[in-house]
Design brief:
Blueprint: H1 2-23, H2 25-32, H3 42-64, H4 69-79, H5 81-93, H6 98-120
Helix pairs in contact: 1-2, 1-3, 3-4, 4-6, 5-6
Length: 125
Amino acid sequence: MIPSTCVGLIGIGLLAVGIFALVSPETAAVMFGIPTQANEARAYVWATATRDIACGCWFLALLALRVHRKTLAASLIVVALIPIGDFINVSLNASQSTTALLLHGSSSVAFVAFGVWLWRGQLSR
């Protein structure tokens, strides 16, 4: 139950972040760590929003299908590549982004840690 609840919360959280970025792209860009300066940049914010919505739907679909815990674990570990890429992107392209770097870094560590924990079956005991 705990793994399903956590994965469900991750899915819902990603959906919420994605929807927020679609509705308020300028604020989302600041939270991401790279504020937008031009309307053209909004396309990239919407791309990340779509990505977050798709990942959230992926996790919720896996739960609805009642897949094996190792499938959930592998998905979490692989999806951790996204915040790792975001971390690299922000660190290379933003000057004052400590909060955003902490957000991206901690979410990637959390995805990997939870995925490994789930893979090993510690939560199902």
